[in-house]
Amino acid sequence: MLADQLGRGLDDLRISVTDRCNFRCTYCMPREQFGPDHAFLPRASLLTFEEITRVVRVAAGVGVTKIRLPGGEPLLRRDLHRLVAAVTAVDGITDVAMTTNGVLLPAALDDLVGAGLRRVTVSLDALDQATFAAMADVKVAVDAVTGAIDAALDAGLVVKVNTVVKRGVNEGEILALAEFGRERGISVRFIEFMDVGHTNGWDVTHVVPAEEVVATIAAAHPLSPVVRPGAGPGATAVADRYAYDDGAGEVGVIASVTRPFCRTCVRARLSAVGELFTCLFATRGHDLRAVLRSGADDAELDAELRRIWTGRADRYSELRTLGQAQPEDRVEMSYIGG
Ligand code: SAM
Ligand code: SF4
Ligand code: SF4
Fold first, then answer.
1. What's this model's pTM, rounded to 2 decimal places?
2. Number of structural domains, the chain?
3. CA distances from 193 to 133, 254, 319, 335, 338 (A)
4. Cα dihedral angle (132, 134, 136, 138), rounded to 10 degrees?
5. Are 270 and 55 in contact (CB under 8 A)?
6. Is residue 134 part of a domain?
7. Spacing, Cα 264 to ligand 1 middle (Å)
8. Where are the beta strands (DSSP E) in the chain?
9. Is the CB of 262 under 6 A from ligand 3?
10. Probe ligand 1: pick from 103, 123, 177, 253, max atoms within 8 Å of CB?
11. Residue 71 lies in a domain
């Protein structure tokens, strides 16, 4: 297995297909920073679907089995289903999923399912309209997102929901969202608000610890931790899972701030312009587009991937917990994907 400096393999590649978004979530793309004057990436600079597929093919050769397509908002990239079809067909790739805010999902479902998509994660931070609007900062009805979730379920997709919890804004929605998941048998994963990028005004006081989320839900619906077969050293899932004792499915928490999981982090991220980031909190990526466009063959691309991964020693969240993280000019999440 290809291993980095801390013995971690590379299993999961997240590919941002655009840095644009139709939402302005305050924790991700605050409107003051991503307003009309913001310079988004010029379309010609984006990797083509052929280039992305080539990276995926070579990445599969060094161990990647999982691909996720986030953004920005991935469904703003035209004909995304063509990329889904190409990536699904790559030998060694066993899992292709997408993360979306849901608004454009219903119209794209037929094409995506036809292309082989089986799983989707929809982000939803509140059911209450005013709270939803306070998080997403858009004039979109929350029903558009809940409707997209139901449409995806009707289309036969496995659906998960991602909820970022921000102290003082949407913590009052935790139970309602858990119930939304219980009614549909889908897993809602509550994510601790993270200090990604440098524009979202993060402060540790905005973080609602995952433990508090679990306690809030368990007070209404008793829960038991799900012990995964093979969990423990070597396990790589980021969510801590809990099953409802009454059999109504599962709920998850992603405790990236209070219980960092760097030791098992097997993820890399490819930005829309082809920079490979080996950590969500990296300040700099490795320019794979330059390699792709230099006429390099697959063996050279393979060597470059191996060189990058074997040199990796990232563990930002662990260092944050130890009080040793450097507040550098971190890359934005909408740029490298979630
Ligand atoms: N636009 C899509 C969406 O929102 O689902 C995909 C991209 S978004 C960057 C991917 C995930 O990152 C979303 O679930 C979002 O809630 C999460 N996210 C963004 N900023 C975050 C932050 N500061 N802390 C924790 N999660 C964050
Ligand atoms: Fe857009 Fe997703 Fe970021 Fe919200 S979290 S601004 S929907 S990219
Ligand atoms: Fe992985 Fe970096 Fe997050 Fe740690 S901080 S879990 S190394 S992406």
1. 0.95
2. 1
3. 17, 10, 17, 17, 12
4. 100
5. yes
6. yes
7. 21
8. 12-15, 66-69, 95-100, 119-123, 158-165, 187-192, 223-225, 240-244, 250-254, 267-270, 275-277, 286-287
9. yes
10. 123
11. yes
- Taking the C-alpha atoms of residue 136 and residue 38, their distance in angstroms, rounded to an integer, is 18
Domain assignment present for residue 247? The answer is yes
Structural contact between residues 326 and 310, judged by C-beta atoms closer than 8 angstroms: no
Cβ contact 273:50 at 8 Å: no
Backbone angles phi, psi at 68, to 5 degrees: -125, 140
CB 187 within 8 A of CB 160: yes
Pairing mode of beta strands 119-123, 158-165: parallel
pLDDT in tens, 105-135: 999 999 999 999 999 999 999 999 999 999 9
20 occurs within a structural domain: yes
**251 forms bridges with which residues in the sheet?**
188, 242
Beta-carbon contacts of 92 under 8 Å, excluding residues fewer than 6 positions away, are 60, 61, 64, 65
The CB of 279 under 6 Å from ligand 3? The reply is yes
DSSP code of 203?
-
Helices (H), 32-93: 49-61, 80-88
* CATH number assigned to the domain comprising residue 85: 3.20.20.70
Sorting pLDDT into bands at 50, 70 and 90, what band is 220? Answer: very high
Question: How close is the Cα of 61 to the center of ligand 2, in Å?
Answer: 31
263, 307, 309, 318 from 6: Cα distances, Å: 7, 15, 11, 13
196 — pLDDT class (breaks 50, 70, 90): confident
